[in-house]
Amino acid sequence: MVELVHLSGRVWLYPHDPDPEAVRPSVAVIADDRGSVLVDAGNSPVHATEVQQAIAAAGLPAPTILVYTHHHWDHTWGASAWENVEVIAHTAAVDLLEAEAKRPWSHQYLRDQVAENPRLGPSFRARALAMPGWDGFEVIVPHRTFEDTLTLPTGVQLRHVGGNHAPDSLVVLDPESGVMLLGDCFYPPPFHLRTDSDGMDFGMVKRLLAERHAWYVDAHSPPRGSPDSET
């Protein structure tokens, strides 16, 4: 079983899968005696269940808040496996996830969509790999949203940054631990929407690094320590 990795302070990570075809991002847990905040839901109920087992094995409290860094499937499809959590996201995520929730998800639907648009292939093959079955699956729309910033009762800070990857992208900052969780905020658009001119948003990267947090964590890479951090 994969275990949670302690990063700093009260931040723990369930590591991403380095296989790019798996599209399995890291999931973060920010936990102390005030409770646990989960950052991203996992790419499927199976993934979410593995994270739940790792949280229990680490002796951390079960999450009561689940934050979506953005609406993409690999960050939200595990949400139906999380019980008794309040799901929080940026306002722009609501319409996007409501549209996703109306789709007739199944392996046949995935095949049909790829046949119509082959550029969907990498993403939709990864979805098929993540979902051995569809019983009980649903796309969970956020219970609470915000526009610019939101500070949770545990002191965790959420900030909308947008960007080309997803309009609802937000970053999650735990000042007590010196950790900023980035999701995919500086990535180019998804493959099926990407043009030859699209690339990483290095302007956004530069602005976030200028804040000089001790750790920066995007969802598909190992954590990066800030070399000039004072934290």
UniProtKB/TrEMBL annotation:
Pfam families: Lactamase_B (PF00753). It comes from the Bacteria. Residues 24-220 form the Metallo-beta-lactamase domain. Coiled coil: none annotated. This is Glyoxylase-like metal-dependent hydrolase (Beta-lactamase superfamily II). The lineage of its organism: Bacteria, Bacillati, Actinomycetota, Actinomycetes, Propionibacteriales.
